[in-house]
Here is the input.
Amino acid sequence: KQWYQRRVAITAGTMNPGYAGRSELPDNLKALFRTVAMMVPDYAMIAEIMLYSSGFVNARPLSVKIVATYTLCSEQLSSQAHYDYGMRAVKSVLTAAANLKLKYPDTDEAILMLRSINDVNLPKFLGHDLPLFAGITSDLFPGIKLPEPDYGILTDAIRDNCTKMNLQMTRSFLDKVLQIYEMMLVRHGFMIVGEPFGGKTSSYRVLAKALGDIAEKGLMEENKVQITVINPKAITMGELYGSFDPVSHEWSDGILAVSYRNFASSTTPDRKWLIFDGPVDAIWIENMNTVLDDNKKLCLMSGEIIQLANTTNLIFEPMDLAVASPATVSRCGMVYMEPHLLGWEPLLDSWLNELPETITDDFKLKIKSMFERYCPCLLNFVRKGGVTENSPTSDANLVKSCMNMMDCQLSGIADPASITGASNEQMTSWLECFFMFACTWSLGASLDSKSRKHFNIIFKELMTSGLSLENKRRYKILVMVEAPAKPLITPIPEDGNVFEYQFVREGNGKWVKWADSLIGLAPIAADMEFGQIIVPTINTIRYTALLKMLLDHCKPSLFVGPTGTGKSVYISDYLLNQMDQTKFKPVVINFSAQTTARQTQDIIMGKLDKRRKGVFGPPFGQKMVIYVDDLNMPMLETYGAQPPIELLRQWLDHWLWYDLKDCTSIKLVDTIFIGSMGPAGGGRNNITPRFLRHLNLISINEFDDSTMSTIYNSIVSWHLAAKAFPPEFKTLGQSVVNATLQVYKGAIKNLLPTPEKSHYLFNLRDFSRVIQGCCLSSIVSIEDTDALRRLWVHEIFRVFYDRLVADSDRDWLFTFTKEVSQRCLQRDFDVLFASLTSDDKPITEDNLRSLLFCDFSNPKADFPKPYLEVKSIEKLRILVEGQLEEFNNMSKKPMDLVMFRFAIEHVSRISRILKQPRSHALLVGVGGSGRQSLTRLAAYMADYVLFQVEIGKGYTSFEWREDLRRILRKGAESETHSVFLFTDTQIKEESFLEDINNLLNAGEVPNIFPMDEKQEIQDAMRKIDKTREKAKQTDGTPLALFNMFIDRVRDQLHIVLAMSPIGGAFRSRLRKFPSLVNCCTIDWFQAWPEDALEIVAHRFLEDVELSEEHRNGVVEICKNFHESTRNLSIKFEQQLGRHNYVTPTSYLELIYTYKNLLGKCREKVAYQRKRYTVGLEKLDSARSQVSQMQSDLQALQPQLVVASKEVDEIMVIIERDSIEVAKTEKIVKAEELIANEQASVAKGIKDECDADLAEAIPILEQALAALNTLTPSDVTIVKSMKSPPPGVRLVMEAVCILKGIKPDRVNDPATGKKVEDFWKPSQKLLGDMKFLQSLKDYDKDNVPVAFVKKIRATYIPNPEFVPEKIRQASNAAEGLCKWVRAIEAYDRVAKVVAPKKAALAIAESKFAEAQKSLNAKRAMLKEVQDKLQSLRDKFEENTKKKKVPTATLR
Here is the structure.
């Protein structure tokens, strides 16, 4: 037998069951593996073996106790995401026990085991689980008391560093720091988990400093700590780990890869902590499993594997582990830090230590007592009193906010000079008032309007007396508060609530109402634009003052409130118009659902200057105020993180970002954060508390009725006064505001948003739009008070009615508006709109369709055109059709529109929107409803320029940004308004809507312009700025000029969005991009009414040839088809819950299909009729031809006989002549063969001659070319030589020989004998003027034999007779040498060619003779052939003559 050995590669894989972060393997891959299910191992046996290997004697009972401990914990303790009782937890205990056994080999093993269990598990348990765990361990280890661990050195170092860092070393904080240290020794990867203000960051910072101090002292064998902090959710996965470039496939390292490699390659003994300060989820943490395992290896996609250094720890700092996978939890140690164990008192103590020197210890005690009296009660009230916060807060956050507000006020007395002369009573009074103000705007600042009233009750009760039992029960307050020992020196007045007062430091201090600041303010300027009006109210005064206070003291803050409460207006107005621009530099950012962390970082970094390597900030001497609007809009990731928020949190936590190109750290300095947002819900999300902890949260609640009335009454009164309306309009203006308020509140209460009506979102912007529409009136357009009432109804319908989708909602609004009109405007609805109906019936909803106001009904009016009521719809239709005809004549893309009543209504609505400043439209309707066409027409009628992007196959965000830059620049740099029409079919990427959202909200797209183009914009704005009035000109700085550009974009560019409600994309986009609703007037294109269907059908059938009766019938049938299908679709949706959309496009297609079918049928009938008529004509023509042929038959019979006879005679002659032609042709062919042979012989000889001559001819041509380069002066130089060089003599001798010139005989000086000398003959020859020409004309074909023989014998073999050597003597002689050698070569070839030329001449003469004879024979042949051809032609002619009569006879 033979045995063969095979090498087999075994591939094994491990996987966990499906949970977060894991996906199922495909079936075709699973089929390749044999599945082996791994069951839960025997923990006790594994523990026993490992304990024995570590030196434990009582391993078996101790292993059982470990397993029992975890079993009981899993059953009795609470369920938390970060609790783990699996094999890795057991192994951690065993590792800790092994370390203790090595350190204390003689200690009781039960004590070591209990110590290990406690060290590993106590840090992760919540406070309420600790007693249960203590009970479990005491039962399993009865009678065992653990000795206190000796951490004296470390504790002292921690205490010292807490003092240096102004932190309070409470017992719980010290325990957690020590637990982190112990966990660090046992686990290379662990997590510090807990809510904000639990001390997570401070604990590891204190520990790092303490270990550094211990290392410097050489104690505990410890080393210093190097820390690198990364927020993994502030960057993408590619930026974290690294990625391949999608184009070049080049690998780029991520931030983690770079930091990890640096730590791994470091040779220093320092401890390295890689801290992941951010949410832990299955998206990124699963890639760390190999690092957290015992392998300790980071595997990158590039194939690189990096081993973790023994000095490195991976520390994770999440708030919770709600979305972490079990695999991650089991791999990490846990230290849980609870904020309530630390409390807010340590924050207070640390803050008191930092107060100014002017605050003595007695005053600090006073401040602390006020905190301890007010804060517990008010925090209890906020948490359990049934009140509502606009954004969730934590207790420590509220107390910290109170300290921040105190800091802002204490800065006024920080300088000892500022309190010179102040008595102790005054200081006490000031501090009391400072605290009350700070407490009001911190602990009560996050509450909504209703809750603030309850806060006022509690706060005032705390000021004057103890907390009553009634209020304790009412608000579920558990804290007892006694009456103050001493009454407050300057309490807040009882009149009004605490939020209505501000503190003024005069004397002992006094409380002044915010409203008092409104007295004496200047009225609204007559030339003010509506969009620029800010009516001062108590809210504008107090929120602007609070904002200024916080900004001046660099306190980050967040303003929260519903949409339309003025958050953005207050903040933007202060930042851009009131803030000291020499100290602060504002940056405004708008978040949306699609905002990314990369975009946020690019925007902010684009505004900062590089101060030095790795440090960025505003220009020296300034602070950058970064204002983020709609802060909570970014969409949540799969596991709940918001990367833009995480990026901002990393900034506020560590003042650190990373350069995403080279992965280096970036430090941010002199920057302040300000944010605003709406309450969570409707596309807005709750923000992580870890970010909110840094912010002072202030709620801007909805205005109460009196505030709204004050604001809009001021605006309406300003408008009526500016337009010089009669006095009776003033009272009506107040009624209009009151009526609008009632409709607005009624809409909010009754028109609630649903998934189908997601755009039913009403805010104060809608209120403003109604008033703004009423302010379009003028004394010219409004004849009487009833006209103003009708205008108000029109504006109510445009703002509220036009967005409604359900008939029931429209009916409710019509009825409610009718009631409000009668109640507030004191006018019966039917009387007010009597002109809209022809009979005395009550006004219906359909009648109000004819209520139109527009500015294009009078084309002759001067600009600005008045906003007039339309008296006749028919006249308006004629006017609009005229405008449409003008548009079609001028446009390259004419529109075939039918201006029925429905279209006129919508074009007037769009025109109304375009007329108003800074207004935009959201047109919602199905395909074919006319959204784009009517927008183009409205823009043309308003003399606006319309822009629309061209979407192609390769259209990307790059082309989109190019188009946007072009549109923005054209819109701002020209003096005409423009319209940007954008449809949902053009949304190739959701980032397009991100930019649109920014444009709607702020008028700009951040960082869209590069620096060079931004400079061009500023130059263009500078030119425009110089042409404006002096009062309106800017200060000329780049920032002011660019802000002017943004203002012009907002003023002159109107955005019209055309979207379809079909599908879920529309609802999703409204939720993600709130500006689509908040900043746009919505016009919902309803289904075409009956009159529209009828007019459209008549219009498109007018070119069809039909009787009036048939036309009306066809129109009626089309209408019936469309409406019945629409009704069936409604039933279909009601019964099956599925949509079938019947669009205007389908109606038009129905009409077009009918026209096409009718045309095809008519063409078919016409074709059949034509065939029948043509057939009859053909039959009639054939009958007449037959009768004519019969009459001609008899006349043609004699001609046929004569033609036949002539044909027979010619045929005989042709046969005879054909024989003679054949003989002659044979002779000619034979002679032609002979001539061809002779020609071939001659050609061969000629080719041989040419080949031989081809050798010599080039040489001769080169020689002649060399002669051409010679000039007479060259020859003269040679001639004038008295003692020519040997080379020159040699050449001239050869030339003389060829020219037949004899030498002179002269005496040889050496021998005395006669020798031949060619030089004097040569000089004579060279003196000939035609010397060179004679050489060119030399008879090369007849050179005497003797000459050539002598040349060949004497000169050609001579090694000195070569052009290269001759050139050294003379350039002229070189050319003559070439000529001589060429003549010799040519002669040599010519002697060979001469006999061949003679043979060629003989052959050519023979060929010429043969050719001559052949040509003669060919001439004879041609003569005979011509004769034969003429006979044949004659035969053909006679044959035809014969056939004609024959055919005729037939």
In short: The first helix runs from residue 27 to 30. Residues 1-6 have pLDDT under 50 and may be disordered.
